[in-house]
Amino acid sequence: MDDRARVEKAAHEVVEEHDPRSVPVREFLAAWFAAGLTWVHFPEGLGGLGVSRGLQARANAILQGAGGPNPFFLNPIGHGMAAATVLEHGSRELAQELLPPLATGEHIWCQLFSEPGAGSDLAGLATSAVLDGDEWVVNGQKVWTSFAHRARYALLLARTDPDQPKHKGLTYFVLDMHAPGVETRPLRQMTGQAEFNEVYLTDARIPDTHRLGAVGNGWRVAMTTLMNERSAIGGSSSVRGAGAIADAVELWARYPQRHTPVLRDKLAALWTRAEAQRLTDERARRSATSGSPGPEGSIAKLVSAELNQHVYEFCMELIGPEATLYGDYTQRDAERNEDYRGPVQQRFLRSRANTIEGGTSEVLRNILGERILGLPGDLRADAGKPWKEVPRG
Amino acid sequence: MDDRARVEKAAHEVVEEHDPRSVPVREFLAAWFAAGLTWVHFPEGLGGLGVSRGLQARANAILQGAGGPNPFFLNPIGHGMAAATVLEHGSRELAQELLPPLATGEHIWCQLFSEPGAGSDLAGLATSAVLDGDEWVVNGQKVWTSFAHRARYALLLARTDPDQPKHKGLTYFVLDMHAPGVETRPLRQMTGQAEFNEVYLTDARIPDTHRLGAVGNGWRVAMTTLMNERSAIGGSSSVRGAGAIADAVELWARYPQRHTPVLRDKLAALWTRAEAQRLTDERARRSATSGSPGPEGSIAKLVSAELNQHVYEFCMELIGPEATLYGDYTQRDAERNEDYRGPVQQRFLRSRANTIEGGTSEVLRNILGERILGLPGDLRADAGKPWKEVPRG
Amino acid sequence: MADAVTEFVLTPEQQDLRRAVRRFCAERLGEDTVRRLAESGTGHDPALWARLGGELGVLGLAVPEELGGAGGGLVDQAVVAEEFGAALVPGPVLGTVGLAVPALVALAGAGLDEDLLASLVEGARTAAFAVPDRGGRFDPALVTVTETGGALTGEVRHVVDGTADVLLVAARTGEEIGLFLTDGGERIPLSTLDRTRRQATVRFSATPARALAVGAGAEQAITAALRVGGALLAAEQVGGAQRMLDRTVAYAGTRLQFGRPIGSFQAVKHRCADMLVLVEHARSTAFHAAWALQDGTDDPDLAVAVAQATCSQAYQQVAQESVQLHGGIGFTWEHAAHLYLKRAVTDAALLGSAAEHRERIAQLVLDGASASGGVRVATG
Amino acid sequence: MADAVTEFVLTPEQQDLRRAVRRFCAERLGEDTVRRLAESGTGHDPALWARLGGELGVLGLAVPEELGGAGGGLVDQAVVAEEFGAALVPGPVLGTVGLAVPALVALAGAGLDEDLLASLVEGARTAAFAVPDRGGRFDPALVTVTETGGALTGEVRHVVDGTADVLLVAARTGEEIGLFLTDGGERIPLSTLDRTRRQATVRFSATPARALAVGAGAEQAITAALRVGGALLAAEQVGGAQRMLDRTVAYAGTRLQFGRPIGSFQAVKHRCADMLVLVEHARSTAFHAAWALQDGTDDPDLAVAVAQATCSQAYQQVAQESVQLHGGIGFTWEHAAHLYLKRAVTDAALLGSAAEHRERIAQLVLDGASASGGVRVATG
């Protein structure tokens, strides 16, 4: 039996024995994990079957065909970033402990990277981790954290050696969000909602067994995570006309009295750009030789962020006077897996963050220029300097 | 008699005694110079009356009212850049020698600043001048020189000390273009025309009396010249709807069969931007306390260059299939004071240089950001280094 | 050049006026106050408004002295509007100062209620302008409120400052359009994007009203008010855009990433340069419109359309760039950037969109254009 | 995924084809040759053309074997077109390979002249397509040439490669449109902006011609040819844009100013990044169009319109940026940038402008859109 048949057989068995329409989600996902179908390319016993990553699509198709859930949406950071990082950089014992409840959504994950003083310059972050016996003591402030208020675990990047140049003094940890000294506060956005959190860390302790990768090797570990994040944020739908542009086309149909030839041309141009990006994503996916996200993800993220903004600017222009109205600024803690996007005015405001979150468009253009086109890097003020001597603020 | 009356009286006398419609141009301009009306703010005896620069407009109005020529167009570099530089940085004897034939257009001037290896980084230029007795021996290559083939004199910036940082090793000269070792070759552009020249300098000799300013002070002297140049290039017409936008409006009227609402909106947007820049120039002119060109010139240059390009891109779109035709690529040496702009397709091609010549748009945005807004400078690779140690190419 | 009063050159008195308003706003209308009012029920503090009208005296600068105003020109009022826009002054700036007062001034001699005008200028009362417009200009076809027997019936949507004390209402009376005054009508506050610039839907149901003018006089007053409102709104937009530019430049000069101020990166610096150009263009067109209306030196329709087309785009663009260049912090509720962004979006939709003003410009400068001489086309 | 032939994944044979054409162009059609031909009378070297058809065999890759072609797909021909665009291959690439050959293939079985097709594929003869289009699509109303008694009368302007050996001409014959073949007619060469892509005005005055098809068959062949021509033109545009991007990046990486490569400045680097996005989008849409026409997997009209709207804009933008980032040298006659800029401007005007293709896209995706569910609007 070849790998494909093996995956298909396992998937059919799970959905037959645990009808996803009737069995509780976590129970179903536990069976899915046990069968090695959560991440088919992972080793057996850790949610996988040790087969090609490309076969995941086949398993998911059977899952969705049977009416099953999309595990990713139940735990986006867990699935999109944490699982691969834990597998690659943690011990097998740690993976055995952390992956099953991650896979079922019992443990939601979040990511503690950005800081108020370390946005585009993520490697300049200041949160410190100091070894005390076999535990690390962590102090600092993180920001722009999705799901922090619901998360059981966090991916944490902290500075363990301020005397090294900034990239070299970082270490990567798994933090228990229920540990003492971890405080989460909602961060309100211009939409009125609080989709993100600030997380304050005060003498929070992490066992050394929850370190991922070597001390001082945190930046390299984080790069995997970030590539996955950009790819997840940027990846546009493979369905023509889906995503933000669908909102604009629907509004167009709903506001015939506001049609003008100029707006029509503008919308056609936006639609065409969305389609060109969709085809570009499709092309990247199909011609990729490896399964891991590459720099194409940066193109997708750059384009879709700016396109989203232009689409919602268009929508606001289309609806005219109604653009000046807003439903409700009452603060709510939004979560990614409900419809937090709200009416179009809220989507317009929300889109302003698209070119900032997960890498600003400025940083992404640098990445495209340097990593894809091979242009020389910026002159650096901080090259080679110990982190503690680089001005911050 | 106040200064204004004095200027008016002198101007009326000149045009009465030398009817500009019948007297040869040079003879007329010699009389105009003798009366101190060429640059009224210059000292008496050097083409001026020592009065406020603001009164020049009054003199020119009388000159034009009597049908006289615009001296500027007869010798743009001479009037726009050389005269003020010679007056400020040359000896009185030198000014007495050079200014009269400059004023009459007998001696056309050109400017030898840019080099193939020194474009945006003008201060990095390599043309050398070495003192030999009381003469300087000059070697190097200059480029993008207007009028070089007709010019008698050139404003020359050359390196006299390669051991100094780049700005500090430059000296400014007046070069006799008829001197041995000065060779001028036309430089053909994408339009087919040769509006500019390359100038090769091979052991060309300059008497030390033709140095302007101190040895090593050339950059400061050049700054005056450049400010004047940018102001001259960027200064848009004060007449509403004039300039490039007039071409677009005329074409619009001539191509009713090509009208669409989208093109109409585009042209209205271009017209509005041209009008906003015209009003901005007007505002800068009126609220300027001094008569010398300031950083507003950089806004004018930046906007008008990009606007010109967008206007001619619009024109090409408007005329559709006819945009694919072109009259004649035969090389001709164009001069600024005839209609070198040709048909609209040629104007389109010519406009591509607008964002390069006289300061690229990239350099101008740096100037706006740093000199007007006060933002910090770029990190510099060449700061403080001797010129000869800075990589070039 | 060299006229006694030159366009674009502010007099020393106007510069003093600017400083006085700026100081008042800094002391009395700081961001905390603006936020408090924005979250309040009415979005407006009548006591503060009365101080602007009384103590500072800046609500009727272009109103002739004999009508209870300062007897200055529209440029004076534009200087104040720019500062109001910079401070996001809440309250009926547009409804009262921008539209109702100019309409009443235009009615001088024809039914004008002088007591009302004086009380508006003093800030003792407020007014709004319940007149529909199309692209910032009056179109009688849009008027759906009708008057019969001294009472109004009908609805007007999106009335800026529509909960004001009194309303000037355009209504059909027989075959003509009249401008009516009422303190009645149902006022239904809208939940606005910009909580510092409120709107209401206004409903009349046999609501008593007094005719201020009927026919040509009413239409002239409405047109005059919409033009003045457009020019003053443009000046407000300039003020907001300039403030956002200033704050962005200050942030870019001090915020460090990669061991250097972010403003030293060309990606940031050049966007600031583009913002500067937008603000400079906006200021030139807004003040030209004010000068043109004040001195009659330009086609008022064209000058206002150019100002509105330019300022609406510039303010929105600058506000969006400001959020971007502030990075994450600029997206938070705590930072002021969103207050300006919401104002910019709102102002762009009021009194005609940029696209509608461009259409007006096209009518004025393209439709009559001639193809005499000029540029040739190579024809192969 | 994992079909035998996956869209966007070139087969090893197609990659070999690309390399072979690129090598041929580098060796035989370098910039000097292109410039020499561009300045020659006809703009075209028949011997070189015959080598492309014969030795290299790349002028009829999508022509069925039984009709004398290579029996491949349109994607093969698009791969070649991309390389032709990169090298600015002069000669009747668009007229013959892009339009005339596809029209003849579409006529297979209906009046097709197989000898002619074979000679075109071999590069022994050349053909052009004297059919007016509106926005890259056929509109019978535009046909002004008429046929009576086996002879054509009338004029067609802007015929690309119009001095070719033979012409396919759309003409009215009675109530119908026919597609006619002639080697006659007066050919008046136009003085083109892009001297590597020539055009002519063609005049017929009782010029003998043979009918290839009349009525629906003729119109179907014309429509098919215009679609294929649009897809291949888009592939050429991709090739030109990619070449300009490559040259610009190479220049920016080596040109030093201020003691550092200009590509290390964000102002330059970020514009290169934007050019990269333009080129990637162009390539995706052009090859999707070729695949869609080849395999029938998408609405051919939509796929071609998206490709043309995207590639025309991308190529022009990239070529203009390339001039800018090369600085002064990029404005000279000696540098190649202007050759590509002129080609980009020309290609954008041929077979429909980007605006015309956007209008077609709007018809296809907006006019039938429905407002079911989806995004709400806050209504205050």
UniProtKB/TrEMBL annotation, chains A, B:
Cofactor section: FAD
Gene3D superfamilies assigned to the protein according to its UniProt record, in alphabetical order: Acyl-CoA dehydrogenase/oxidase, N-terminal domain, Butyryl-CoA Dehydrogenase, subunit A, domain 2, Butyryl-CoA Dehydrogenase, subunit A, domain 3
UniProt keyword Flavoprotein, yes or no: yes
Key words of the record: FAD, Flavoprotein, Oxidoreductase
Species, as recorded: Pseudonocardia xinjiangensis
Family per similarity comment: Belongs to the acyl-CoA dehydrogenase family.
Residue ranges constituting the Acyl-CoA dehydrogenase/oxidase C-terminal domain according to the UniProt record: 216-373
Name listed for the protein in its UniProt record: Acyl-CoA dehydrogenase
Automatic annotation (TrEMBL), chains C, D:
Keyword Glycosyltransferase: no
Origin: domain of life: Bacteria
UniProt keywords, alphabetically: FAD, Flavoprotein, Oxidoreductase
Cofactor: FAD
Residues of the Acyl-CoA dehydrogenase/oxidase C-terminal domain: 216-364
InterPro entries noted in UniProt: AcylCo_DH-like_C (IPR036250), AcylCo_DH/oxidase_C (IPR009075), AcylCoA_DH/ox_N (IPR013786), AcylCoA_DH/ox_N_sf (IPR037069), AcylCoA_DH/oxidase_NM_dom_sf (IPR009100)
Every Acyl-CoA dehydrogenase/oxidase N-terminal domain range: 11-123
Family: Belongs to the acyl-CoA dehydrogenase family.
Name of the protein described by the UniProt record: Acyl-CoA dehydrogenase family protein
Native species: Pseudonocardia xinjiangensis
